[in-house]
Amino acid sequence: MIAIILAGGYGKRLQPLSGGVPKPLLEIAGKPIVSHIFDKLAELKDVRRVIISTNLRFEQQFREWSDSYPAWKAEVIADRSRSDEEKPGAIASLAQLTSEMSDSCLIIGGDNLFTSSLKQLVRAFKERSCTTVALYDIKDRELARQYSTVAIGDKGRIMNFSEKPAEPDTTLVGTCIYILPKSALSRLREYVANAADRDSPGRFIEWLCKREPVYGHILGGYWWDIGVMEQYVALSLLRFSQRRLKTPFVPLGGSSKSKASNLDQTPEGVAKDEVTVVIPTLDEAETISKVIEMVRTEGYRNILVVDGGSRDGTADIASEMGVNVLLQHGVGKAGAVKTAMEHLITSYVVFMDGDCTYDPKDIGKLLNQSERYAHVIGARDWSGMNYLQRLGNWIISHLFGVLFEVKVTDVCSGMYLLETRRVRKYGLEEPGFVVETELAAQSASDGALTEVKVDYRPKIGARKLKTLRHGLNIFFAAFRLARRYNPILLYSSVAGLSIVPAVSILSWVALRQLIMGIWHSGWALLGIAFLLVAALAFVLASVSIMIRQTEKRLMTEIESLTEG
Questions:
Q1: Distance between CA 72 and CA 68 in Å, rounded?
Q2: Cα dist. 256→29, 61, 241, 276, 299 in Å?
Q3: What stretches of 380-466 show up as alpha helix (H) in DSSP?
Q4: What is the total count of domains within the chain?
Q5: 463 and 396, same structural domain?
Q6: pLDDT-derived band at 234, boundaries 50, 70, 90
Q7: What burial letters (b/e) apply to 455-489, b meaning 16+ CB within 10 Å?
Q8: Which helix (H) or strand (E) holds 33?
Q9: pLDDT confidence of 264, banded at 50, 70, 90?
Q10: Is 241 a member of any domain?
Q11: Domain enclosing residue 550, as ranges
């Protein structure tokens, strides 16, 4: 299968905002739209070649972007136009581009942004070997007038495809995401030879539906068409306001007032579409389908499964249920967290294990604290743990609380909420299960950590975390993390603990010398050693304080410059 990204437009409707940048290279959630599209393509094993179809004006920009994208090298093919007046049109360019191809083609408009995996679309295409169009329910008849409305039969065949109807009778619309079998490629040239509109993909699909079977596949998650300035600005501003002002996020078009009723809100007012639920998995075939269903029952549609190389078909089960599945890079839980953070486009992320130990109903409790804290831990009910786990968790959590001056009872919990924008700045250096403690350490040092009580059930299946070995790893990691993220308290504590024996030993040695005339050189050396340790720790603590104060001043300046 060949994937073709349509990027031949000149973005006139986005000027002057675009500033000479093609629409697919405009940034949403910190990276270009085309990068989001390529992230989705990277999940598809069937795609063997990717082409960006553009024009001479933007050809070099796409080549530079392609060189910087690490996962895939795209071919950039330009038509001969340099202005909107000269362009041949999207369908005409597509007809020319596919004239020598003998493979099926996945066509994606370069201004389409979506959260759903395309695996289900490809699977639906393979089942029928007919043109298959990705559909989306925008739940707004007024907005549907701007798109192609679609009526489908029981088996998914498109019965009616109407481009920009004046009075739409449905809110189900066709997107510029579709798959053409190699037998349908000649239809492109046939259409171009007789059609007046050679630019609109919707017109072509409308024409094709009258000549051969065309099927639809409804996308899960969310879809946006970044076609005009109002939509791009609205999406960007709404994502900003969601992060800063906690106002409801609108999936597509319209105002918050008109759309809020279409969205399930969490108790804090955060729209559920602004939350991605990430489920790290490793051989969870027994439970993953149940976990996904429970998450969906709570109204969360952005679900991302990050698989660590399961051998029992966990990833396939999740993919068949229509959720996004990523194969993690790196090792252990830390690798899963890093992989997930690279692909998020929502403002919040909730991590929860795939072994059915956590209840998705508790996600709302975490989101209740999202306005005040960037990191909310789901503190587990200890009734689901054995006695050794309870003891280890108690020791580690209390040690963490002392080292980071925060009150927590379950720093090792596998269920927690993070604010994406803030946590993306964190550095993750610890391996395996220590990653949760490292995230908590950085959030605690910023005063952004809290916890709420959540239910916890006994694990189904084999336990992957070895209580004693992993517990000791986390215990010693807590000291490393304190040195890295809260050195002031650590070094101050070392100084305080060292000065007491230093003074005691040296005072005893001095008294023995003065009163009895006996000199204890060994004890004197030990006392001096403690004194030197205390002095060194005091110096390190002082330097840490100065560095922290400088860091805070710099961050304040940067934030003021950014806001200004």
A1: 9
A2: 19, 35, 11, 20, 19
A3: 387-404, 420-423, 434-445
A4: 3
A5: yes
A6: low
A7: bbeebeeeebeeeeebbebbeebbeebbebbbbbb
A8: helix 33-41
A9: very low
A10: no
A11: 488-563
Domain harbouring 381, CATH code = 3.90.550.10
Q: Is residue 183 part of a domain?
A: yes
For 324-352, b/e burial (b = at least 16 CB within 10 A) is bbbebebebbbbbbebbbebbbbbbbbbb
471 pLDDT band, cuts 50/70/90, is: low
Q: What is the Cα–Cα distance from 177 to 224, expressed in whole angstroms? A: 12
- Interior angle at CA 171, CA 167 and CA 176, nearest 5: 105
* C-alpha torsion 234→238→244→245, nearest 10: 110
pLDDT in tens, 508-529: 989 988 888 888 888 989 989 8
Helices (H) and strands (E) in the chain, counts: 19, 20
Among 314, 313, 312, 292, which Cα is nearest to 304's? 292
Domain boundary among 197, 229, 261: 229
Distance CA 527, CA 509 (A): 9
This prediction has a pTM of: 0.53
Do 419 and 291 have their domain in common? yes
Integer Cα distance of 236 and 46 in angstroms: 32
Quick one: 327 and 184 in the same domain?
Answer: no
* Residue 22 preceded by cis peptide, ω within 30: no
**Among the residues of 321-376, which ranges form H helices?**
332-341, 363-368
List residues bridging with 107 in a β-sheet: 4, 178
pLDDT digits over 26-41, tens only? 888 778 889 999 989 9
Tokens of 3: 């994937």
Using the 3D structure, point to which of 199, 229, 259 is the last residue of a domain.
229
Considering only CA atoms, which of 159, 158, 110 is closest in space to residue 135?
158
Three-state SS string over 475-508 comes to HHHHHHHHHHHCHHHHHHHHHHHHHHHHHHHHHH
